Amino acid sequence: MDFTFTEEQEILRDSARRFIDKEWRVENIKTFIDRQSPFTEEMWQKIADLGWTAVLIPESEGGLGLSFVDLAVILEEMGRGPVPGPFITSVVLAGETIRLAGYPYQKEAYLPKMATGESRGTLAWTEPGDLNSLTPVKLRANRSGGSFELKGTKIFVPDADLADVLICLADTGDGTGLFLVDRDLPGVAIHSLNTMDRTTNLSEVIFDHVTVHEDRLLGKPGEITPFLNQILNRVNVAYSLDMVGGSQKVLDIGIEYAKTRVQFGQAIGSFQAIKHTCAELLVGVECARSIAYYAAWAQDQDHQGATLAASAAKTFASEIYRKVTKEVLQIMGGIGFSWEHELHIYLKRAKCLGALFGDATFHRERVAQELGY
Amino acid sequence: MDFRYTEAEQAFKDRFESWLNSHVPKGFGSPEFTPPDTWDAIAIEYRRFQGDLFRAGYAGINFPKRYGGAEGSVIENIIVSELTGPVYFHALGGCHVISLGLAAPTILAWGNEAQKEAFLPKTLSGEIIWGQGFSEPNAGSDLANLATRAVKEGNEYILNGQKIWSSFSHIADWGIVVCRTDNAVAKHKGLSYFLVDLRLPGVEIRPIRNIAEDPEFNELFFEDVRVPETMRVGEEGDGWKVALTTLGHERYLGEVAMAATFFKEYEEMVALAKKMPMGGRSASKDPIIRQQLAQTYIELSIMRCNGYRNMSKLARGVMPGPEGSVGKLFWSQLHQRMTEVAVDLLGPYHQLTRNSRYSIDHGKWGFHFLRAKGNTIEQGTSEIQKNIIGERVLGLPKDSARIATKQ
Fold first, then answer.
1. ipTM of the shown complex
2. Which residue of B has its CA nearest to A362?
3. For chain B, which terminal residue's Cβ has fewer other Cβ atoms within 10 angstroms, N or C?
4. Residue A1 lies in a domain
5. CATH code at A46?
6. How far, rounded to the nearest angstrom, does the alpha carbon of residue B310 sit from its chain's CA centroid?
7. Phi, psi of B141, rounded to the nearest 5 degrees
């Protein structure tokens, strides 16, 4: 039993932190946000050049064939940034779906390009109309001959406008299917949604009589539940790690402020009202870190505990990220409430990632089901 | 990162588990089990169990063999702690806490050769039970304010004063006691640490009942108690350091054992939720109960992970960083939340005590609920924990009131 990272992983973490500190100063993010565009292709290329997009892709498909724990180190550092853009969406949501559920010819077609960063993808799951974002899929895929015709609408699709391939969950009549839909197919329309968190891009995707050949099905309709569970686990562990990194960064900001801000002739961090809040937050962040690391390892093992660990991590990390941003905003007073300060970027990201692919309440229920209650 | 046991570790676990199953107190593990009625009976059972453990070579895993320990690995220590934790806490009143968690490691770290030889094997074998004499009526969170005097006279110290909240002294043979030996220096510099035979003339022990009516701690009075100089641990004036030394290994191990214990409590709680009808269906089908049970499971998993994180670092010879300081604050609050879930689950039945008609599980959930209220007070209140984390881990400045009293 060992809960420590390898030397290679520590080196990876150091280099990730140095890269992000240099390239993604939070002031840059603020500038991008004011321009409504928190992402650049130049940045994506730099990330790809570091090999981060290739981490989970097998060597046979041009990737590095590394573990989820290796990726975890990168994700935690990216969360500190926070680095905006489609990294988790493409690498975990799309890449892992294709790797896990795809046939060899599909993997060959997509994964090598995703490894180099040349191509990106996303997963279109949630549909409008139900507050539970992962309710049964209603978007129809009607078979006609060797093809399917997709008709319906998806919402809260992450980074759809930056994706080359949209993996769409659709009801085939013989169960839910996973379709690889190239974004430039006729009938696909992507509309960005205006949301609070500008580090994450969410879209409505309309499939208006989109014809997709049956060889674009990942796995067999009706038999993809195990894959969907794995994807749900992995994307939520990825978000959890991002949220741990973000929580730590926000706590660092709050502590620095508490040490330097003087009122009544003393640094406000000497007051127990502030000090005890900071201590509670540290406990929360370390607890989130423990379970997120464990969950990353559990994904590599793929055992029965992978789902429990993933949902536990998402529940706790999402609640602690919200709590840290809320409490640090309170510690900082007016400055933390201003657009000028970067705190709101984290606060909104916490809210966005917390709700994507199941919020804390959803994941607690998932734990209860997994435990057979 | 790897949470699996090696084959050798798994074999050790299997071996120990099968040994343990035939040496736990009779009936332990069945839902009908209740611990003995009196502390005297609990102490007898503790000495029996600990003695068996010692003779089988499973006591003091991280202690040197020459002092009766097993010199086992950190992983073996985790395995034994997780498996024995529920036995100690649920069947043996937690009698081991001061003896094995505080007295023995302190003597190992600070004691001289004679003290180690005299006390360690007998403590590991359960022959000696230790009580704690730290807090006083005017020295709680401000422990360094303690006033019990130890005045040197020849090769003895004469102890006078009063201790309170003294855990296990009512069943203990010896006590670890911090006294003031010098009034002239800053208050935490004038303390010394003693091993006191609680049967010496002048020692008086008066039990105090806790809110669950359980006399688990005591007032401890010293009136001209003559303690040989050889029973001082460390130098005169070292008492504060000796008492508050971060006993990393034991503390983290204690948390691992406690996590396993709480998990056992949790499993029983879930079994209850599945069994008990609530509004015509089993309570475990109620959406709010499900949320609470799942949240508890999540927090318990985290507590266990925290323990493994700390132990992994120790196994590599590294002291845990900030992650090492979160334990007490988190587990004490977690245990309160968890026991609140249990009593809420039982509705009006939670209030029925041990001998009442209709009581569920002998009223133990109400007992756990009440006992857990002490968790955020004992061994350093949550407020003190937060000061420690805020100042020593996060580097926040001390507040002016405590600077003024030079503390």
1. 0.96
2. B291
3. C
4. no
5. 1.10.540.10
6. 18
7. -60, -35
SS (H, E, C) A34-45: HCCCCCCHHHHH
Average per-residue pLDDT for chain A? 95
A113 torsion bin: left (phi>0), alpha (psi -120 to 50), beta (else): alpha
B330 to chain A: which residues are within 8 Å by CB? Answer: 283, 287
The shortest C-alpha distance from A45 to chain B (Å) reads: 30
State whether B240 and B283 are in the same domain.
no
Domain tally, chain B: 3
Q: Mark whether B228 and B255 lie in a shared domain.
A: no
Whether B391 is catalytic: no
A289 at B interface, C-beta within 8 A: yes
Together in a domain, B124 and B145: no
Region of B334 on the Ramachandran plot (φ > 0 left; ψ -120 to 50 alpha; else beta): alpha
B-facing residues of A in 62-81 (CB < 8 A) are: 69
Residue B1 in any domain: the answer is no
Q: Is A264 on the interface with B (CB under 8 A)?
A: no
A184 touches A154 (CB < 8 A): no
- What's the domain range around B143? 131-244
Together in a domain, A159 and A207: yes
Domain shared by B56 and B99, yes or no: yes
Q: How confident is residue B246, by pLDDT bands cut at 50, 70 and 90?
A: low
The whole-angstrom distance between A308's CA and the closest CA on chain B is: 8
Q: Which of A255, A280, A361 sits opposite B386 (nearest CB)?
A: A280
Contact B397 A259 (CB under 8 A): yes
User: 3-state DSSP call for residue B207?
Assistant: strand
* pLDDT surpasses 50 at B205: yes
Interface test mutation site (partner A, options B394, B399, B402, max chain A beta carbons within 10 A): B394
pLDDT attached to residue B407: 47
Q: Using a CB-CB distance cutoff of 8 angstroms, which residues of chain B are in contact with residue A291?
A: 298, 301-302, 305
Give the integer Cα–Cα distance in Å for B323 and A285: 9
| Contact criterion met (CB < 8 Å) for B294 and A275 | no
pLDDT tens digit string along B44-58? 999 999 999 999 999
- Contact: B329, A316; criterion CB under 8 Å: no
DSSP B257-270: HHHHHHHHHHHHHH
Residues B145, B217, single domain; the answer is yes
- Distance of alpha carbon B150 from alpha carbon B227, whole angstroms: 9
A157 and A96 together in one domain: no
| Per-residue pLDDT tens over the stretch A168-222 | 999 999 999 999 999 999 999 999 999 999 889 999 999 999 999 999 999 999 9
Which one of B45, B76, B250, B265 is the catalytic residue? B250
Angle of CA points A98, A100, A101, to nearest 5°: 70
What's the total number of domains in chain A?
3
**B77/chain A closest Cα distance in angstroms:** 12
Q: Are residues A100 and A111 in the same domain?
A: yes
Which pLDDT belongs to residue A270?
Answer: 97
A183 and A268 in a single domain? The answer is no
Range of the domain at A196: 122-218
Both B376 and B390 in a single domain? yes
Per-residue pLDDT at B247: 58
User: Looking at residue B152, which CATH number applies to its domain?
Assistant: 2.40.110.10
Residues of chain A contacting B391 with CB distance shorter than 8 Å: 275
State yes or no: pLDDT of A318 exceeds 90.
yes
**Any chain B CB within 8 A of the CB of A317?**
no
Half-sphere exposure of B218 (CA within 13 A, CB side): 21
Contacts of A371 in chain B (CB under 8 A): 270, 293-294, 297
